[in-house]
Design brief:
The structure is a homodimer. By secondary structure, the first copy, chain A, is α/β, with parallel strands linked by helices. Chain A has one domain (6-294): Aldolase class I (TIM Barrel). Chain A contains twelve helices and ten strands. The first copy, chain A, has helices at residues 11-17, 25-37, 60-66, 83-91, 105-112, 116-132, 155-167, 184-197, 214-224, 251-260, 269-283, 291-294; strands spanning 6-9, 42-48, 75-80, 96-102, 137-142, 146-147, 151-152, 172-176, 202-206, 228-231. Chain A has an eight-stranded parallel barrel with strand order 1-2-3-4-5-8-9-10, surrounded by seven helices. Chain A has a two-stranded antiparallel ribbon with strand order 6-7. In chain A, strand 9 (202-206), helix 9 and strand 10 form a beta-alpha-beta unit. In chain A, helix 7 (155-167) runs parallel beside helix 8. Chain A is globular and about 65 Å long. The termini of chain A are far apart. Chains A and B meet through strand 7, helix 8, helix 9, helix 10 and helix 12 of A and strand 7, helix 8, helix 9, helix 10 and helix 12 of B.
């Protein structure tokens, strides 16, 4: 039996978030519909944040509303950062809510103008509201492996934070390599320690390919026992401070690698490639995904075929 | 003690080979000099092939001559495909000679207009000449993991070929994922089987990042016990049939990953990044390397720093 890996598609949230031009609501809805047709079962669809801070997500309600007829086996996660966001997410019919904070004081302050301790207090408060509605919660821990102000972290840095969250009843955690600094041995060691200490935790990895280590870090996660990965169609969603660098790990590239290795993702790679190519046209720039350029390893040429010189 | 990994720099051979415009001899020489200053100890410098087939390598003698004062601890490998090439390589003072053939009949015929069996006969003949001069030989096995005409190979496909080569006295083999089709489990399994069956073999991996699996395949090789990898500055050297796809695994990106994990490469990453950026200017196009765009994981920002919005 093939081992199952669950991918969470983040293209319309983490992917689109830093796109400078507003992407029309209709396109977002249409893309998500076709991602679902390509086999995507989990998505971080949008974020319920103030449109002043993230104008790209100003249509969060409209996107959710346009997809209210989604299949029952598809899970929509949405990001909320405060009470208003949680209320909006609940009203919009989210299936799960994602909260987030950073390990790094500096990074956390820059993102939320709160200390880590204040962010945790806030999350503790928000958890109660989501629990009242019986909405499952995932907590994303940004800069879990390091941050560009403080450097690379040992597992000991993130583990006490997971301990606090699990004490509050959280059973799904997303360790995020927000700025693509983590290396494979670090990912493996951290995930092994986390899964050993919290055996009942649902552990997700949110990896970026900023420094070319994304796929290697997926392998490291798999070796540690992680089976849930966030990724973005075409690999979009970089850092504002690394122009030209790769973004999130690329959905179709990672699915291609996993399927070659015998893992089951339930995704249709050809459909994903079609969507990635279309997105490249839509955003009018070369996107990081490789499979859409090179084809799958299983795409064979006839004997008569000659490469262009 | 940090575990040693030896990188062989192939930018001026596999990297430049498919560049359409001729790169001046002076630039090639200057780049190799500065790669050596950056810590590079092994290079595949050039190939002694007919200039009609590979015009970019028409200055093979001139490049070697311009670097005849190289340090003693630096090894220059050069590629030769026939007797004339071997004589030219010897006359030019090569330190080691690389021969090559493909596992794939189709790929081998397209590259050399010979069957695999004819190529092996040819290599067996060439080995004698190199041995007379006591010049160490490496044999590169192209499409070791699969080819775009025949698909992905099991280890059983390449092992009998290694057996024949070792019977002929070859003790250094380069397994090449020429078209970037290999996946990490395959690389690990193949290398484990090869190293088990041929424990005295010096095994090199020549990996491409065509489908985004390059760094993951390096990890797989390391886990199998491989400590020698070919790579190209800035990740250049793609396939003519995958335009826009990544080329060879990128020297500075892989060195960055290895050093983060505690391996010793003896390379100066900052110098490599400087050279990669310069090469990007020289070739007037965006090159695949990520570290030159994103910076190293250890490059820290001050607290005052704000990302561009």
């Amino acid at each position: 039996m093939r081992k199952q890996v669950t991918m969470t598609e983040v293209v319309t949230r983490d992917g689109f978030q830093i796109e400078p031009g507003f992407i029309e609501t209709e396109y977002k809805i249409s893309l998500i519909r076709r991602l679902i047709e390509a086999g995507v079962k989990r998505l971080e669809v949008t974020s319920f944040v103030h449109p002043i801070y993230v104008p790209q997500m100003k249509d969060a309600e409209a996107v959710m509303c346009g997809l209210s007829d989604r299949p029952n086996d598809v899970t929509f996660c949405t990001l909320a950062l405060n009470e208003k966001g949680v209320e909006r997410a609940i009203a919009a019919g989210t299936d799960e809510i994602n909260f987030t904070f950073s390990v790094s004081e500096t990074h956390n302050r820059k993102n939320s103008r709160r200390s880590v301790s204040e962010s945790l207090d806030n999350i503790r408060f928000l958890i109660r509201r989501a629990e009242e509605e019986k909405i499952p919660i995932n907590v994303g821990i940004a800069t879990s492996f390091g941050c560009p102000f403080e450097g690379i972290y040992k597992p000991e840095r993130v583990i006490p934070l997971i301990e606090r969250l699990t004490d509050w009843g959280i059973n799904s955690i997303i360790l995020a390599d927000t700025t693509g600094m983590a290396h494979p041995l670090q990912v493996k060691e951290t995930c092994q320690q986390v899964l050993k200490q919290f055996p009942n935790l649902t552990l997700h990895l949110h990896l970026h390919n900023t420094r070319g280590m994304g796929a290697a870090n997926v392998m490291a996660g798999l070796e540690a026992g992680v089976t849930r990965f966030d990724s973005s169609l075409a690999g979009i969603g970089g850092c504002p401070f690394a122009p030209g660098a790769s973004g999130n790990i690329c959905t179709e590239d990672i699915v291609h690698m996993l399927e070659l290795m015998g893992y089951e993702t339930e995704m249709n790679i050809d459909k994903l490639i079609t969507l990635a190519k279309e997105l490249e046209g839509k955003l009018e720039k070369t996107l990081p995904g490789q499979i859409m350029k090179a084809g799958k390893s299983s795409d064979l040429h006839s004997n008569e075929w000659q490469p262009a010189r």
